[in-house]
Write a structure and sequence with these properties.
The structure holds 2 protein chains of 2 kinds. Chain A is mainly alpha-helical. Chain A has a domain of 45 residues: Orthogonal Bundle (Histone, subunit A). Chain A contains 3 helices and 2 strands; from the N terminus they run H-H-H-E-E. Chain A has a two-stranded antiparallel sheet with strand order 1-2. Chain A is flat, with a radius of gyration of 23 Å. Chain B has 2 domains: 264 residues, Amidase signature (AS) enzymes; 76 residues, no CATH class. Chain B is built from 16 helices and 11 strands. In chain B, helix 9 crosses helix 16. The longest helix of chain B has 24 residues. Classes of the chains: A mainly alpha, B alpha/beta. At the A-B interface, helix 1 and helix 2 of A face helix 10, helix 11, helix 12, helix 13 and helix 14 of B. Chain A: Keywords: ATP-binding, Ligase, Nucleotide-binding, Protein biosynthesis. Chain A: It catalyses: L-glutamyl-tRNA(Gln) + L-glutamine + ATP + H2O = L-glutaminyl-tRNA(Gln) + L-glutamate + ADP + phosphate + H(+); L-aspartyl-tRNA(Asn) + L-glutamine + ATP + H2O = L-asparaginyl-tRNA(Asn) + L-glutamate + ADP + phosphate + 2 H(+). Chain A: InterPro entries: Asp/Glu-ADT_sf_sub_c, GatC. Chain A: Belongs to the GatC family.
Chain lengths: 95, 481
């Protein structure tokens, strides 16, 4: 049901790299799970309103007031690489 | 009974009466940890220095001086919070989760951070990115998951109580396997601010304790509206300890036939039905009921949870925090190699599953369908709770399986068949021990209630706990050299 090619496609969408040896395993496992969830089609859900949250919830807004955000040093404290108060990453456009 | 075997309320009494000092309590628990954690492996990190520093402070509040374990997916300021994942192995949050803040205000002391399945994905704590936790009742068996470290810590006397998180049963299932009490509160009753998100519409933090009274005490400390969490519900906060009384007279209890007709271990079934019989003798009215859509809950869960996880876990890219792969010549390669090296297989599997069901052309067939089924499941529960106060089932179909025994993910997912519907419907449920199987492993019984029905659940659980009279039974951890 899920091919190796599907796995490559999904992994790409999810920013994941799947090792060649694992592709077949993932294809089989994802296929099995998707086959299992087919079970839902036994239920008629025509006209049923979908539920995202199970407790009543309206728009939740805080007061529209500017507040200080997290300090820069604290925000950068966990960065694997930083320079001049900024996060540093490898080149976005390389040769 | 040793000091580390005491419940929170028993420890509290001794601390208040000044029979013991906070430092003595800490000494006892850390000695116990030093003695057994090489075998149990409940903790990913210990916060000894911070704990002793706290012990020197003038602690006040309902949990003054009480030592607790915190699952490692709750943010602790300046203290490593890893989600048992290599991608976060060095992450020190700049703030405390609301529950952690509340526990501090109540005077509790954190002993350390508890092991878990990576990003709370799993039912055995074998999926931890670091090491497996063992069941204190029998070290060859799994403690359950994903809050396996929290449950094992409490069961082994390595903490007076603990916090876990429950997305599809991750508090109740390990509580059942480890013979302790685990409560998943109503969705929105406990703030999720600072809980590292797995599936946002299902996750809920709750207590894991030695007895039901402790569960009420911890719940009191962590509930309440939080403006930092937009899904936190504004309601009047009851004193849950007021429900700790023996009384089930006239209480209407439903036994969902779909739960009992499934293939479940006969010892588990018998233990639960015997417990229910005792409640009936104590005055409860017990009837068989039907929950037809419950059998679809697991399928809906395995669409909703991975879908939300794939979105929540998109933030781990190695830029702002966590592990970053050095093997990349450009930024795009850095994202993929970081995620490939940082995440374990179960996490990758769920991210891919979630990405697939949300991808173009499949959204309606999977995600929307699952959200509609969710409506049907919720309506089924709502209908039953109009007529019944509570529902009872086993927590899990079997007792704790052996470590390494479950190799097929789909088979492992079946362990959550009784717990998942509760998260799908957003209702509260508790697991408490109802007995032991012939191998001496604990059996868990689950009591479910309507939204914000925690009080009634606790009252029924407390009554049952007194009737069963096994609450003082503790795991005898085999200490390996």
């Amino acid at each position: 049901m899920i091919s190796k090619k599907d796995v490559e496609y999904i992994a790409n969408l999810a920013n994941l790299k799947v090792d060649e040896a694992d592709k077949d395993v993932f294809a089989k496992q994802l296929g099995d799970i998707l086959e299992y969830v087919e079970k839902l089609n036994e239920l008629d859900t025509d006209g049923v309103v979908p539920t995202a949250y199970t407790v009543p919830m309206k728009n939740v807004f805080r007061e529209d007031k500017a507040e200080p955000s997290i300090e820069r040093d604290k925000a950068l404290a966990n960065a694997p690489d930083k320079k001049d108060g900024q996060f540093r990453v490898p080149p976005i456009i390389s040769e | 009974m040793e000091l580390y075997d005491l419940t929170i309320h028993e420890l509290k009494e001794r601390l208040v009466d000044q029979e013991i000092s906070v430092t003595e309590v800490l000494n006892t628990f850390y000695e116990r940890i030093d003695q057994v954690d090489d075998s149990v492996r409940a903790y990913v990190s210990l916060t000894r220095d911070e704990a002793y520093q706290r012990a020197g402070e003038d602690l006040t509040g309902s949990l003054a001086g009480i030592p607790l374990a915190i699952k490692d997916n709750m943010s602790t300021e300046g203290i490593k919070t890893t989600c048992s994942s290599n991608i976060l192995n060095n992450y020190r949050p700049p703030y405390d989760a609301t529950v952690v803040k509340k526990l501090k205000e109540a005077g509790a002391i954190m002993l350390g951070k508890a092991n878990m399945d990576e990003f709370a994905m799993g039912s055995s704590t074998e999926n931890s990115g670091f090491f497996k936790t063992h069941n204190p009742w029998n070290l060859d068996h799994a403690p359950g998951g994903s809050s396996g470290g929290s449950a094992a810590a409490v069961a082994a006397g390595e903490a007076a109580g603990a916090l876990g998180s429950d997305t599809g049963g991750s508090i109740r299932q390990p509580a059942a396997y480890c013979g302790v009490v685990g409560l998943k509160p109503t969705y929105g009753n406990v703030s999720r601010y600072g809980l590292v998100a797995f599936a946002s519409s299902l996750d809920q933090i709750g207590p894991i304790t030695k007895d039901v009274k402790d569960s009420a005490i911890l719940l009191n400390a962590i509930t309440g509206h939080d403006p930092m969490d937009s899904t936190s519900v504004k309601i009047d906060k009851p004193d849950y300890t007021e429900f700790i009384k023996e009384d089930v007279k006239g209480l209407k209890i439903g036994l969902p036939e779909e739960y009992f007709s499934l293939e479940i271990n006969s010892e588990v079934k018998e233990s639960v039905l015997t417990a229910v019989k005792k409640m009936e003798e104590a005055g409860a009215i017990v009837e068989e009921v039907s929950l037809p859509s419950a059998e679809y809950a697991l399928a809906a869960y395995y669409i909703i949870a991975p879908a939300e996880a794939s979105s929540n876990l998109a933030r781990y890219d190695g830029v702002r925090y966590g592990f970053r792969s050095e093997q990349a010549s450009n930024v795009s390669e850095m994202f993929t190699t970081t995620r490939n090296q940082g995440f374990g297989d179960e996490v990758k599997r769920r991210i891919m599953l979630g990405t697939y069901v949300l991808s173009s052309g499949y959204y309606d067939a999977y995600y929307l369908k699952a959200q509609k089924v969710r409506t049907l499941i919720k309506e089924d529960f709502d209908k039953l709770f109009k007529e019944y106060d509570l529902l009872i089932s086993p927590t899990t179909p079997t007792t704790a399986f052996k470590l390494g025994e479950m190799s097929d993910p789909l088979e492992m997912y079946q362990m959550d068949i009784f717990t998942v519907p509760i998260n799908i419907a957003g209702i509260p449920a508790i697991s408490l021990p109802s007995g032991f199987d012939s191998a001496g492993l604990p059996i868990g019984l689950q009591i479910m209630g309507p939204h914000f029905g925690e009080g009634k659940i606790l009252q029924a659980a407390y009554t049952l706990e007194q009737l069963l009279n096994i609450k003082d039974k503790r795991a005898k951890v085999e200490v390996s050299k």
